[in-house]
Design brief:
The protein folds into 2 domains: 143 residues, 3-Layer(aba) Sandwich (Rossmann fold); 155 residues, Rossmann fold, CATH 3.40.50. The chain has 12 helices and 9 strands. Helix 4 links the parallel strand 3 and strand 4. Bound molecules: phosphoric acid mono(formamide)ester and norvaline (NVA). Norvaline binds next to helix 6.
Length: 312
């Protein structure tokens, strides 16, 4: 049966560990310039209904490294913008390609793509979730801290797709997570309460950013207004005053805290230049690791030796 990557919630701890292990192997192979081409002759269709730098480039370069090919599908140039159903698009893409990556608005569009495609579907970000990012960030934490066990991870800012995927990550890997979000901008209630109910770790929501970062090993943040929320920017700027990762805030964390941001950043809003360019920041390691983790995802989902049902 085909395997999709829609949410970290759908993955078992062992699957995440296998993925991270694979990413480490692929990173080392790349460092040694050793070729690894399990996806020769395979094609990934990438549907982007929102902009992207990191996700697009890392999937495209990743497919090339693995011996395959990636197609960038801009909805303006396909029939998606003219209303062709996602189900029909999924069925058609399944006749040509071996995998689909989709970045879109509603989570339901990702789920529909997966339901109607006969090939693996990867969530490259929705309004609700950003699983590839957080899997990659967990890999980066592993490089800097040797793993996530026993860690206190803080998240400061908008309770958005990134925050929701951090909650799923904490549930599956068992690290403590403290989120500080302004009133009215909390993470998805269902995702949070499910993780608090099913998980063994502490997952706490507060409005106080100092409380969230106290003694933290890792501090995360993200933009105040995500893609698609540009019209709310003025009101969000007001609501998010006092939610900023700056030098004073990180004083309350561990002395060796690492600061993370999935990027793109709005410097001077959710994070200061001083912190982003300072010694605690690992943001560009995070960006690089998108490539290695993406390659692991592609190899594990698409490199099973099974081709799509048309046998190409
Ligand atoms: N972090 C991330 O997903 O970046 P892009 O929007 O550039 O893909
Ligand atoms: N929360 C941000 C993440 C960008 C990678 C957004 O959705 O725009």
């Amino acid at each position: 049966m085909k395997k999709d990557l829609i949410s970290i919630y759908d993955l078992a701890r062992e699957e995440i560990e296998a993925l991270l292990q694979k990413a480490a192997e692929l990173k080392e192979m790349q460092r040694q310039h050793r070729p690894y081409r399990p996806l020769e002759g395979h094609t990934l269709a990438m549907v982007f209904e929102k902009p992207s730098t990191r996700t697009r480039v890392s999937f495209e370069v990743g497919m090339y490294h693995l011996g395959g090919h990636a197609l960038f599908l801009n909805p303006q140039d396909t029939h998606l913008a003219r209303g062709e159903a996602i189900a029909d698009t999924a069925r058609v893409l399944s006749r040509y390609a071996d995998g689909i990556m989709i970045r879109t608005f509603d989570q339901e569009r990702v789920e529909d793509m997966a339901r109607f495609a006969s090939i693996p579907v990867i969530n490259g970000l929705s309004d609700q979730l950003h699983p590839c990012q957080i899997l990659s960030d967990i890999f980066t934490i592993g490089e800097h801290r040797g793993g996530c066990d026993g860690l206190k991870v803080a998240y400061v800012g908008d309770g958005n797709n990134v925050a929701n995927s951090w909650i799923n990550g904490a549930l599956r890997l068992g690290f403590d997570l403290r989120l500080a979000c302004p009133p009215g901008y909390e993470p998805d209630k269902k995702i949070l309460s499910r993780a608090q109910r099913e998980g063994s770790s502490q997952i706490i929501l507060t409005h106080d950013q100092k409380e969230a970062v106290e003694g933290a090993h890792v501090i995360n943040t993200d933009v105040w207004a995500s893609m698609g929320q540009e019209g709310e920017r003025a009101e969000r700027i007001k609501a998010f005053q006092g939610y900023q990762v700056n030098a004073e805030l990180i004083q309350g964390a561990r002395a060796d805290v690492i600061v993370m941001h999935c990027l793109p950043a709005h410097r001077g809003e959710e994070i200061t230049d001083e912190v982003m360019d300072g010694p605690h920041s690992v943001v560009f390691d995070q960006a690089e690791n998108r490539l290695h983790v993406q390659k692991a995802i592609l190899a594990l989902l698409m490199g099973t030796g099974e081709r799509n049902e048309q046998g190409r």
